[in-house]
Amino acid sequence: MGRVRRILGRPVVVGLLVAGLVAVGAGVVWFQPWKLWVDTTVRETVPAAADGPGRGPRTLAVGELISHEHSTSGTVRILELPDGTRTLRLENLDTSNGPDLRVLITDAPVKEGRAGWYVFDDGAHRSLGALKGNKGDQNYALPAGLDLDRFTSVSIWCDRFDVSFGAAGLTRV
Fold first, then answer.
1. Digit-coded pLDDT (tens) for 26-63
2. Are 126 and 144 in contact (CB under 8 A)?
3. How far is CA 163 from the centre of its chain?
4. Model-level pTM?
5. Any residues with CB less than 8 A from the CB of 30 and at least 6 apart, and which?
6. Distance separating alpha carbons of residues 67 and 72, to the nearest angstrom
7. Residues 6+ away with beta carbon under 8 Å from 36
């Protein structure tokens, strides 16, 4: 017992213990491991027509999400409302939660497997904002004038680790 006290009482050992605790604390903050067990479900409705009933949104493009770094599924639709605004809609999204997840619309081709994990921030891309939830249905406003002939894919992107959780190529309707 006395030997343990002598070892723990040395400044070098105390410094190493403090450094280790700081490293563990920083790792917990950076990786946010609790998100692996916490799901956030969002149930937004399809955007309503601004000029009254009878006129609904028109689908401009669709795509099915494929898995990349994490198992991901769901449908992506680009909707145009009667007032001309456009919305990216995620339907039946199911992916892992994670730190700093974003919805990106990009010009990158969707590739299966590891080849597709890192490509979505290489070329032209626009962040539509933070992912609202890792499950459910959600809407993201598209910038006015966004060229859908140029921006042809969507990624659920982890900005913290620069990796795609899943992505969908968009097919014009």
1. 444 445 565 567 899 999 999 986 555 667 899 999 99
2. no
3. 9
4. 0.80
5. 99, 160
6. 5
7. 96, 97
